[in-house]
Amino acid sequence: MPEHLIFSSASYIAAVGLGLFSIVFFLVRRKPVFRSMGLTFNRWLLIDLMVGLLITFGAIGLVFLVEWALGSISVEPGSLTFSSFLRDVLAPILTAAIIEELLFRVLLLTGVAILLSRLKYGRWIAVVSTAVVFGALHLGNDGATAVTAFGTGLGGLMYGIAFLATRSMWLPLGLHVGWNMSQGLLGFAISGHQVPGWLTSISIGPEILNGGTYGPEGGIPGMLSRFLIIALIVLYVERRWPDGRLSDLNFAPGPEKKRRKKNRLGPTVQGRRAAGK
Questions:
Q1: Most exposed: 80, 122, 212, 272, by fewest CB within 10 Å?
Q2: Would you state the pLDDT for residue 9?
Q3: 52-55, long-range: CB within 8 Å, 24+ apart, which pairs?
Q4: What pTM value is reported for the model?
Q5: Nearest CA to 21 among 100, 99, 106?
Q6: Model pLDDT, residue 277
């Protein structure tokens, strides 16, 4: 069995195992499991998704313009139709992003963050370590190299920061879908995979600039855009939670179980009323 398949299998097993550990951990401590693992359903869901989409579409649009200006890509009309968008772009990209966010953020990152919670920079270490795993898992893709793995790892870094800072999977999911979809629509390869787009962007320059057949995240402009996205994520969560701390990635408040409201009269007053009847 190829080494990357062994590593992938081990990573998926670890993610599921740490996810189960997290569930037990939260149950024992009587914390709401779904909300504690980032599966929150509230009015911020759509906002976080839209913010993620806008940030990444803007970043990839900037990468496209830079690479075009540098002459590292040639641009031709694409072959995208409405049916091919639904079938070959939206469905596979959305499915892959949901699966990866559930595996690597909701399950793996949550479990690692719990294990490292007693360390001073435990949450940051958890983000970086799971980002390394995320990048290495893509080494089996077409056109993948150590450089592209680093670029993909930066993606894991930005998704992990968004996940722990918001304590929710929706911002990282919006970022993930937006990053992949904007690449595909502008004719770039998506981590070695090609889909129909509005345009077709063909690599004609050094791979260090355009990422070659792997896609923009393997080139310098794409990697720099990842850092821009991280800065915008931090700006977003700092505006939303001004009292948050970047040093340990604590911004969104922890989820709490809703308790039933007690009768304001209290048991003593209720007992007196009952005795007086």
A1: 272
A2: 94
A3: 52/162, 52/170, 52/171, 52/172, 52/173, 52/174, 52/175, 52/176, 52/177, 52/178, 53/174, 53/175, 53/177, 53/178, 54/178, 55/175, 55/178, 55/229, 55/232, 55/233, 55/236
A4: 0.91
A5: 106
A6: 44
